[in-house]
């Protein structure tokens, strides 16, 4: 009798593993509660949509793709707990985006886990943590990044600014943490190299998410005589900065990293700064690329939000391509297949997953936000404002590349 | 230099008045009831969301009246069915109740309105620059906020110090049973005071909502600075809160305008020392730490003058 129970239990467990092998699980570790939840939920919807899209075409090598939501409350410590839970549940792929502090913790986690548990490797697909150090001094063989890191974005932006003679005086204002600091340092360095005639008339760091009134900062920008402001601000620090600028009647062009983030478009519309706010991104809704725009339309209809993360599309589709190339969903083989893999990105143009540091290199778009002149060509507005992104310039992959200092330790 | 001083002063006053608008209700509740209301910023948020919703339906001006009344009603309900029962267990229980309430309100708001910012705009009638100084516009809406703040301050002061209502309310705090024996319903007095305090928070929400960001984490972001204002001004002192708001507004605004650092006063450190935490501290500008200054003030006030600027008692 006793043996029978053991046998039955063993059978049940076997059955369990068999069905687990049927689906290919991706642990989505991002905030689903707390302050970052609005962003995290948007990402979750995006990945679930992309998984459905893959599954409709037979999944990856016959495996159904399943996104497992894991709430990390934007906290590195909590993320490690969730990552361990994922590993214990037999998940071999993690994806995360919000916060480079979380990203760095996860990168460290997969490196340690994979060296200690050969045969149980985990890959970390990063879709939005942009700290350059993750693909430089801290780089890991098990980490792949689809978003352009902040240095690459600055490289692309300064390559665009190089050709804009109207830019003469630039003011930098950023949040006082690793990302904001890297934006200001790189902007200074790259502008100094490419346009030494541009004057940096101000360089401000302010505490993160603590400022309620930006008018004193605007007064300083105005006093400096700047014609252009470069900022990595996001969230309320972006919205309040812009509102204060509009209130004071400041007329400058804004070059931003995250104007398109949740609430950003609403804030810009409120200020009435028509086509004066620019964004650097790896894709835009109104890119003119037919396939991308059809996807955008379908995504908006199903998920009721705009496609914030064209890079997530690249990530999931490339994952499938890599698994098919390796003819396996074994993370070690998929990782090897991803290296130096070339891929036609969503909005058109060729990208490549650089082998040296696992940074995806891709075309970068500069777009401005405002009224859309031709609704037939540019059908998509943002957050029901009636305003949308208009393509200003496309920076080809070659001009959106910076060297890496990564000394990759390969297994 | 003149330009810097004039503009910073103006910005400082405007910001200070916004702070007072936000903290007046908190001061009223604390000074009249002795309850430190942790949910105050949540009532402010409710005011902003009610204001947004009512503006959508019936326009800004009716919303400006109705939304605070609604928030006041919510506040009275909280007092009647929550605080009154916990009152007998002391201040810690009341504090914890309002603390929990803050989380509950935030969750409810994000369930109803979602987590993204609302498109809550300044009414068209006030959407124009009121005047221009040194080519910087000052929007009419900010002047409107300033006027409302001053009106609230004067009205509250007169009510509390010069009217019979104020007399009874003040007496109810220190001698509740005596006031009761004189035939006043002490419970109802407290309920009304809490209602008025919440309504003031709601009014602040309706007015500040369009000019700041109306979203479900706005309470958490604004809560801390309000406590600085009332502690600095003296717990429970209305004129104290008024002066503290202005001072904090001015200090912060002027600090942002200053680019000085230790390095600019004493010269840069010897480069041979290399990068270290000391060089970081040496090169931090006053502007960089400006938004933290109010919290430094809070600590200093608590150490050297625990009753605050104009406070009369220590807790």
TrEMBL record, chain A:
<protein>
    <submittedName>
        <fullName>Branched-chain amino acid ABC transporter substrate-binding protein</fullName>
    </submittedName>
</protein>
<dbReference type="InterPro" id="IPR028082">
    <property type="entry name" value="Peripla_BP_I"/>
</dbReference>
<keyword id="KW-0813">Transport</keyword>
<dbReference type="InterPro" id="IPR028081">
    <property type="entry name" value="Leu-bd"/>
</dbReference>
<comment type="similarity">
    <text>Belongs to the leucine-binding protein family.</text>
</comment>
<feature type="signal peptide">
    <location>
        <begin position="1"/>
        <end position="20"/>
    </location>
</feature>
<dbReference type="Pfam" id="PF13458">
    <property type="entry name" value="Peripla_BP_6"/>
</dbReference>
<dbReference type="InterPro" id="IPR051010">
    <property type="entry name" value="BCAA_transport"/>
</dbReference>
<keyword id="KW-0029">Amino-acid transport</keyword>
<dbReference type="GO" id="GO:0006865">
    <property type="term" value="P:amino acid transport"/>
</dbReference>
<feature type="domain" description="Leucine-binding protein">
    <location>
        <begin position="24"/>
        <end position="367"/>
    </location>
</feature>
<keyword id="KW-0732">Signal</keyword>
TrEMBL record, chain B:
<dbReference type="InterPro" id="IPR052157">
    <property type="entry name" value="BCAA_transport_permease"/>
</dbReference>
<dbReference type="InterPro" id="IPR001851">
    <property type="entry name" value="ABC_transp_permease"/>
</dbReference>
<feature type="transmembrane region" description="Helical">
    <location>
        <begin position="189"/>
        <end position="212"/>
    </location>
</feature>
<feature type="transmembrane region" description="Helical">
    <location>
        <begin position="140"/>
        <end position="160"/>
    </location>
</feature>
<keyword id="KW-0472">Membrane</keyword>
<feature type="transmembrane region" description="Helical">
    <location>
        <begin position="58"/>
        <end position="78"/>
    </location>
</feature>
<keyword id="KW-0029">Amino-acid transport</keyword>
<keyword id="KW-1133">Transmembrane helix</keyword>
<feature type="transmembrane region" description="Helical">
    <location>
        <begin position="242"/>
        <end position="269"/>
    </location>
</feature>
<keyword id="KW-0812">Transmembrane</keyword>
<dbReference type="GO" id="GO:0005886">
    <property type="term" value="C:plasma membrane"/>
</dbReference>
<dbReference type="GO" id="GO:0022857">
    <property type="term" value="F:transmembrane transporter activity"/>
</dbReference>
<dbReference type="GO" id="GO:0006865">
    <property type="term" value="P:amino acid transport"/>
</dbReference>
<feature type="transmembrane region" description="Helical">
    <location>
        <begin position="90"/>
        <end position="113"/>
    </location>
</feature>
<feature type="transmembrane region" description="Helical">
    <location>
        <begin position="218"/>
        <end position="235"/>
    </location>
</feature>
<protein>
    <submittedName>
        <fullName>ABC transporter permease</fullName>
    </submittedName>
</protein>
<feature type="transmembrane region" description="Helical">
    <location>
        <begin position="12"/>
        <end position="38"/>
    </location>
</feature>
<dbReference type="Pfam" id="PF02653">
    <property type="entry name" value="BPD_transp_2"/>
</dbReference>
<keyword id="KW-1003">Cell membrane</keyword>
<feature type="transmembrane region" description="Helical">
    <location>
        <begin position="281"/>
        <end position="304"/>
    </location>
</feature>
<keyword id="KW-0813">Transport</keyword>
<comment type="similarity">
    <text>Belongs to the binding-protein-dependent transport system permease family. LivHM subfamily.</text>
</comment>
């Amino acid at each position: 009798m006793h043996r029978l129970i053991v046998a039955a239990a063993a059978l049940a467990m076997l059955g369990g593993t068999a069905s687990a092998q049927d689906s290919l699980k991706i642990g989505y570790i991002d905030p689903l509660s707390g302050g970052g939840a609005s962003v995290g939920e948007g990402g979750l919807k995006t990945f679930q949509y992309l998984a459905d899209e893959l599954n409709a075409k037979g999944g990856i090598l016959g495996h159904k793709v399943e996104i497992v939501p894991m709430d990390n409350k934007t906290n590195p410590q909590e993320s490690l707990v969730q990552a361990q839970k994922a590993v214990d549940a037999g998940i071999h792929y993690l994806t995360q985006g919000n916060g480079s502090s979380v990203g760095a913790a996860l990168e460290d986690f997969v490196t340690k886990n994979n060296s200690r548990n050969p045969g149980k490797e985990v890959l970390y697909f990063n879709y939005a943590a942009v700290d350059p150090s993750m693909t430089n001094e801290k780089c890991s063989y098990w980490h792949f990044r689809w978003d352009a890191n902040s240095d690459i974005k600055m490289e692309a932006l300064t390559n665009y600014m190089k050709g804009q003679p109207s830019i003469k005086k630039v003011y930098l204002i950023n949040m006082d943490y690793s990302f904001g600091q890297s934006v200001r340092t790189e902007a200074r360095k790259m502008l100094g190299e490419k346009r030494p005639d541009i004057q940096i008339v101000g360089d401000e760091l302010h505490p993160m998410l603590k400022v309620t009134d930006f008018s004193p900062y605007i007064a300083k920008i105005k006093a400096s005589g700047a014609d252009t402001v470069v900022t990595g601000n996001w969230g309320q620090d972006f919205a309040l900065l812009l509102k204060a600028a509009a209130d004071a009647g400041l007329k400058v062009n804004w070059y931003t990293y995250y104007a398109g983030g949740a609430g950003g478009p609403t804030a810009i519309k409120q200020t009435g700064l028509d086509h004066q706010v620019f964004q650097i991104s790896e894709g835009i809704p109104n890119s003119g690329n037919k396939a991308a725009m059809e996807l955008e339309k379908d995504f908006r209809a199903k998920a009721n939000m705009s496609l914030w993360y064209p890079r997530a599309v690249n990530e999931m589709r490339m994952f499938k391509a890599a698994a098919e190339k390796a003819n396996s969903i074994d993370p070690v083989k998929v990782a090897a297949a991803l290296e130096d893999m070339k891929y036609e990105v969503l909005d058109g143009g060729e990208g490549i997953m650089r082998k040296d540091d696992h940074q995806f290199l891709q075309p970068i778009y500069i777009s401005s936000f405002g009224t859309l002149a031709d609704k037939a060509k540019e059908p998509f507005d943002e957050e029901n404002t009636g305003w949308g992104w208009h393509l200003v310039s496309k920076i080809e992959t070659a001009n959106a590349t910076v060297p890496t200092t990564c000394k990759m330790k390969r297994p | 230099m003149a330009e810097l001083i004039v503009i910073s002063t103006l910005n400082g006053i405007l910001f200070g008045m916004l702070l007072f608008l936000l903290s007046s209700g908190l001061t009223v509740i604390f000074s009249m009831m002795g309850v430190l209301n942790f949910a105050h910023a949540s009532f402010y948020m409710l005011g902003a969301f009610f204001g947004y919703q009512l503006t959508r339906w019936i326009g800004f001006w009716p919303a400006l009246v109705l939304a605070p009344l609604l928030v006041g009603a919510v506040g009275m309900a909280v007092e009647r069915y929550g605080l009154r029962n916990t009152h007998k267990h002391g201040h810690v229980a009341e504090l914890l109740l309002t603390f929990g309430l803050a989380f509950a309100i935030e969750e409810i708001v994000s369930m109803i309105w979602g987590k993204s910012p609302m498109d809550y705009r300044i009414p068209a009638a006030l959407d124009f620059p009121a005047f221009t100084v040194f080519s910087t516009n000052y929007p009419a809406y900010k002047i409107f906020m300033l006027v409302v703040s001053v009106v609230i301050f004067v009205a509250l002061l007169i009510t509390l110090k010069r009217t019979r209502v104020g007399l009874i309310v003040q007496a109810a705090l220190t001698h509740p049973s005596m006031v009761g024996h004189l035939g006043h319903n002490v419970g109802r007095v407290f309920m009304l005071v809490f209602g008025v305090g919440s309504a003031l928070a709601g009014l602040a929400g309706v007015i500040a909502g369009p000019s700041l960001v109306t979203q479900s984490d706005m309470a958490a972001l604004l809560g801390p600075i309000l406590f600085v204002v009332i502690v600095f001004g003296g717990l429970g002192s209305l004129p104290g809160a008024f002066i503290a708001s202005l001072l904090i507004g001015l200090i912060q605004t002027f600090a942002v305008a200053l680019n000085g650092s230790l390095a600019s006063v004493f010269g840069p450190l010897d480069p041979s020392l290399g990068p270290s935490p000391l060089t970081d501290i040496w090169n931090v500008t006053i502007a960089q730490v400006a938004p933290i200054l109010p919290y430094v003030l809070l600590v200093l006030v608590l150490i050297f003058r625990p009753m605050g600027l104009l406070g009369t008692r220590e807790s």
